[in-house]
Amino acid sequence: MNSDELAMIKKTWEIPVATPTDSGAAILTAFFNRFPSALEKFPFRDVPLEELPTNARFRAHAGRIIRVFDESIRVLGQEGDQEKLDEIWTKVAVNHIPRRISKESYNQLRGVILETLTAVCNLDDSQQETWTKLVDHVYSIIFKSINEEGDAI
């Protein structure tokens, strides 16, 4: 990414990171509403969809999602940023391997993340392209660590 793209990512990121738990909850709520079977892979799978927004386990997980993105966005543009991104997202992938999350499910979440960011940040087409570039890079790191069924490679 060039310096203008990095600046745009960091600037637009200020919106969702201002309320990290609520932002993560918006992503996960949209994800589970669109793909209800995905809920089975989460520790709060026994909680009805309508109760998720107030569930402590759900909100904690939602906040963690935004924090890992925040950690990633903070390192962008720093010396060794690609190595740091590899480290951050490989750890995420490895931590999720026991859940055997398919690449299809990861990609479904990818779409919801981008749609939510676009809506929350009011992204234009160029900004959407830049965010897509970043999220695609993150996903390429994750997918280096897992196979189609979500097992370790």
Automatic annotation (TrEMBL):
Name used for this protein in its record: Globin domain-containing protein
Residues in Globin domain copies: 1-147
Domain of life: Eukaryota
InterPro entries: Globin, Globin-like_sf, Globin/Proto, Mb-like_M
Any Pfam family matching the protein: Globin
GO molecular function, one term: metal ion binding
UniProt entry keywords in alphabetical sequence: Heme, Iron, Metal-binding, Oxygen transport, Transport
PROSITE patterns: GLOBIN (PS01033)
Family: Belongs to the globin family.
